[in-house]
Each structure stands twice: as C-alpha cells, then as structure tokens.
C-alpha cells in the first residue's frame, strides 16, 4: 500500500485527480488510465461542485472525441436534486461517475446524506469507477476546507482518517497542514494538478505523477511517484 492511504470498500476504483484543464490536455494521461478500467456504458457526470451547464457539454465533447466514450450529465445542483429517484437511477446505470471540480462545500451540501451519495457508494461497491477532480476530490476526505465560509467542514469520509489538498504546491503547504490538525485526521494527501491516485479493489493502488503524503501536521512529506 501507498503509506497510510486508505479508502472505503474493497471493490471498484476511486480515482482522485489533483486538477488541471482537460480542454488543454492536462488530465489526458489520468483520463486514459481510468477510462481503461471501465466496462460498457456511459460515463455519468455530476456538475454539482461548479453549478456549470457548459462544463458537462465541454467534457462530453472531450471524452467522445479524445477517448471514444459517451458522457451523460446527471443534473444534481442542489440537495433536492440529489433526492430525485431519476438521478439515482442515472448514477446506477452509468459505468463510471465523474464528479466535476468546483467548490467542495457546495458539493458536500448538495450530496451529504442523500440517496445520490448512497448510489455513488453502491457504484464503487459493485465494482464501478468513481472519479473526482480538484475540489471534488477534497470532498471525499474526512474534512473539507470551505471556500465559502472559511472554516473546516465534514467531508464524505470515503478516505478513513484522510484529507486531500488538490492543486497542491509543496512550497505552499499551509492549507494541507491546517486540515491535518483537525480532529480524527491521521493522514493527508497533497495532489498537484498533474497528479492522480487510483485506489482499487483488493488494496490495489497506483499513482500518476508525484503525490505528497503527510502523517503529522508538523512532519515531513513522503513523496510517492
């Protein structure tokens, strides 16, 4: 295993991307890697963190032209959307779910405790793929650094004891160390924009690019490549 990195469940792939612009090809290597793990069926897209309609249209074109996969936007923007049975069914029917980047606390507010989040959990548990990029990746940790209220909020806790800082720069690590100081946090993951971590079944773990692991808020990083 990659140091202390853990995730819930033992099936499927949870993929965390540090960031980058797919329109500029910055996430292509990571996208090729997780797409290669998919079975048949469309990729479902959650625009929740950004609230953007254009995001889904642009991502759909990118995936179809560059990777030969169809994308279907699942219109979850608010908590009421996450309770709609039709959206739950859309999640269940997809081969993978791509959780778009944006504001992490907006994503947590919309999905926390919802049938849609439960469906995401079942997707992973049944061997599917869940991908989250940038701010969305942080939401799957134990704690989230709010961009709206400037405080620390509970995340989805799919990474037991762990937190994630996306778009990470090791020369400016204060935010990750602040997350590490929160109660119950045992490890932190710094993901630069061009990096990704793939957490698979049977404790399979893969990385793309350098990732920075911290086990003490005042300690030194372990760098994994």
Description of the structure:
The protein is built from 7 helices and 13 strands. The longest helix is centred in the first third of the chain and has 15 residues, at 53-67. A hairpin with a 6-residue loop joins strand 6 and strand 7. The strands form 3 sheets. Strands 3-2-4-5-1-10-11 form a 7-stranded mixed β-sheet, with helices on both faces. By secondary structure, it is of the alpha/beta class. The protein is globular, with a radius of gyration of 16 Å. The two termini are 13 Å apart.
Summarize the structure.
The chain is of the alpha/beta class. The chain is 28% helix and 23% strand. The strands form 3 sheets. The protein has a 7-stranded mixed beta sheet with strand order 3-2-4-5-1-10-11, sandwiched between helices. A 4-stranded mixed beta sheet has the order 8-9-12-13.
User: How many alpha or pi helices?
Assistant: 7
CATH evolutionary superfamily: Class I glutamine amidotransferase (GATase) domain
Mean pLDDT: 95
Taken from the alpha-carbon principal axes, the silhouette is globular
Instruction: Please tell me how large the radius of gyration is.
Output: 16 Å
Question: What is the first-to-last residue Cα distance?
Answer: 13 Å
Q: What is the string of SSEs from the N terminus onward?
A: EHEHEHEHHEHEEEHEEEEE
